[in-house]
Write a structure and sequence with these properties.
Helix content: 40-55%
Shape: globular
Strand content: 15-25%
Structural class: alpha/beta
Mean pLDDT: 95
Radius of gyration: 19 Å
Number of helices: 11
Bound molecules: NADP nicotinamide-adenine-dinucleotide phosphate
Length: 307
C-alpha cells in the first residue's frame, strides 16, 4: 500500500495535531522506527509524553508550516473533529497518490468529514481507546488505555503493521459500524452531561442523571441499530454500569474543553446522533434537546455569554 518515502528508507508518518491523541500516536510511530513529522498550528519546541511520573522525549520533527512539507506515506489526523476543516492546508500538502489517511477522532462520520479535503486518498476511520490529556504545549500525559480500532481489511492490517511493536495496539474489527456506535454510546451521555452541569463524572451516579443518561443511550442505540450497529438495551445497561464504576473525580473531554473555554465537539457526538436519526426516521427528542443546549453553550464559549 504505502511506499517508502521517508529519511533513509524509513516510512514517513505525518501526524496532524500535537494534542493528547496526536502525541500518543507520534510516540508509537517513533517507537516503531518511523520518520515522524508532527504538524502543529502553534510552534512547540518538543514533544514529551508523561506516564506514571516519568517523562519521555519523543524523537519527532515539528513543523508549523504546511507549505514547507511534502506528502507522507501515512497521515494521521488527530485534531478534534471540529478542527478538521482548519487542517485542510496540512491535508492538501501531506496527502499524495501513495498516502493513506487515518482519522483518529470521536464520532461516526470520519470519512465524510475529510473526503472533500483529500481527493482520492484512502481514508481509514479509527476509534480511540486511549485516555490521555494535553497539559501544556507539547506535553501529553498518558492516563490509561492503548487500543485503537480500525476496520478489518488490507488497510487496517497495514496500519496495524505500521505500529507493530510499539505501545499502541491496533485492533482490526470486522463489524466496525457496531464498534463506532458503541464508542459513540460511551460519549453521548457522559460528555454532554458533565459539560452542561460543569460536574465531574460522579454526577452520572445521581438517580435523576442516571435516568436521563439511560434515555439518551436508549435513543442512541435505537438510531445505531437503524444504521446497522448491533446494539441492544443490554449495551445501554452496561454503559450505565461503566459510568458508575469510573473514578468520580474524572471528567470528559467535553467538560475539559468547556473548562478551558475551547469549542466543543458536540456536533460530532450528539449532532451525529441527531443527523443519523433524521436520516433513518428515528425520534430522538432528548438528544435534540441536549444538542440545542450544547449549541447555546458553545456559542457562549465563543463570546456570547453574559458577564
Ligand atoms: N484525549 C483522549 O483521551 C481521547 C480519547 C478518545 C478519543 N479522543 C478523540 O481524539 C480526537 C483528538 O482529541 P485530543 O484529546 O487529542 O484533542 P486535543 O488534546 O485537544 O488535541 C488536539 C490538537 O489538535 C491541534 N490542532 C487543531 N487544529 C489544528 C490544525 N489546523 N493544525 C494543526 N493542529 C491542530 C490542537 O492544537 P492547539 O494546541 O493549537 O489547540 C491540539 O494540539 C478527538 O476527536 C477526541 O474526541 C480523545
Amino acid at each position: 500500500l504505502a511506499k517508502l518515502t521517508g529519511v533513509g528508507g524509513q516510512v514517513k508518518v505525518a501526524i496532524i495535531g500535537a494534542g493528547a491523541i496526536g502525541g500518543s500516536l507520534a510516540e508509537a510511530a517513533a517507537a516503531a522506527g518511523h520518520d515522524v513529522l508532527l504538524c502543529v498550528r502553534s510552534a512547540i519546541p518538543r514533544l514529551e509524553v508523561e506516564e506514571a511520573g516519568s517523562v519521555r522525549q519523543v524523537p519527532v520533527r515539528i513543523s508549523a508550516d504546511p507549505a514547507r512539507e511534502t506528502p507522507a506515506d501515512w497521515v494521521l489526523l488527530a485534531t478534534k473533529a471540529q478542527d478538521t476543516r482548519s487542517a485542510a492546508p496540512w491535508l492538501e500538502r501531506l496527502t499524495g497518490p501513495a498516502s493513506t489517511l487515518v482519522v483518529l477522532q470521536n464520532g461516526i462520520e470520519h470519512e465524510d468529514r475529510v473526503r472533500a479535503l483529500v481527493g482520492e486518498a484512502p481514508v481509514v476511520p479509527a476509534i480511540v481507546y486511549i485516555a490521555a490529556e494535553r497539559i501544556g504545549p507539547g506535553r501529553v500525559v498518558h492516563h490509561a488505555g492503548n487500543r485503537v480500532i480500525v476496520p478489518q481489511g488490507e488497510r487496517g492490517a497495514s496500519f496495524a503493521r505500521l505500529l507493530d511493536g510499539g505501545p499502541i495496539e491496533i485492533r482490526q474489527e470486522a463489524d466496525f459500524t457496531t464498534a463506532a456506535w458503541r464508542k459513540l454510546l460511551s460519549n453521548v451521555a457522559a460528555n454532554p452531561i458533565t459539560a452542561l452541569t460543569m460536574r465531574r463524572i460522579g454526577v452520572m451516579r445521581e438517580p435523576a442523571i442516571r435516568e436521563l443518561a439511560r434515555d439518551l443511550l436508549l435513543e442512541t442505540a435505537a438510531v445505531g441499530r437503524s444504521a446497522g450497529a448491533r446494539l441492544t438495551d443490554n449495551d445501554v445497561e452496561e454503559m450505565l454500569t461503566m459510568y458508575a464504576s469510573l473514578n468520580q473525580e474524572g471528567g470528559s473531554s467535553m467538560l475539559y474543553d468547556r473548562l478551558a473555554g475551547r469549542p466543543l465537539e458536540h456536533e460530532y457526538i450528539t449532532g451525529a446522533v441527531v443527523r443519523a436519526a433524521e436520516r433513518h426516521g428515528v425520534p430522538v427528542p432528548l438528544n435534540k434537546a441536549i444538542l440545542g443546549l450544547l449549541d447555546a453553550l458553545n456559542e457562549g464559549l465563543r463570546g456570547k455569554a453574559i458577564g
